[in-house]
């Protein structure tokens, strides 16, 4: 299974939280990462997005074919993210567009970190793979990249 975590791009600081929109810098971050994903994302990838405006605007730079999942909203649990992705049983690749610190908590769990959450920068992408080898499950961090690196 492939699990790709994409933190929403930079958004304005305002209230209400769910209505926050991307800044001009955030729109550029989303466009850069979308261009990268267009070259590397498997065609059969299922895309799940938080209902927040900033996550929907981030993924819109990539596609209009995504599913809004209420359980991915800000302050969701890491387990809610993994459940929505059907990790690790799912055979299809899944892209989650969500929020910090939840995505960082998912990354920490997948990497076996003692930390509660790792820091994922705005607009960044963390790509994990899971496979069975010699009757043992292995999770690998394939890629961690920020928009500034593209």
Question: How would you sum up this structure, described in words?
Answer:
There is one protein chain. The protein has 150 residues and is of the alpha/beta class. It has one domain: Phosphoglycerate mutase-like (Rossmann fold, 3-Layer(aba) Sandwich). 29% of the residues lie in helices and 24% in strands. The longest helix is centred in the first third of the chain and has 17 residues. 37% of the residues are buried.
- Major sheet size, sense and barrel closure: 6 strands, mixed
What integer value in Å does the Rg equal? 14 Å
Query: What's the order of the H and E elements?
Result: EHEHEHEHEE
Number of helices: 4
Number of strands: 6
- Helix-strand category: alpha/beta
Query: How many domains comprise the coordinates?
Result: 1
- What's the architecture in CATH terms? 3-Layer(aba) Sandwich
Could you report the average pLDDT, rounded to the nearest whole number?
A: 96
Low-confidence stretches: none
Categorize the overall geometry: globular
The span between the termini is 25 Å
Task: Give a quick rundown of the structure.
This protein is of the alpha/beta class and 150 residues long. The chain has helices at 24-40, 53-60, 78-85, 102-111, and strands at residues 2-7, 46-49, 67-68, 94-98, 125-133, 136-145. The chain is globular, with a radius of gyration of 14 Å.
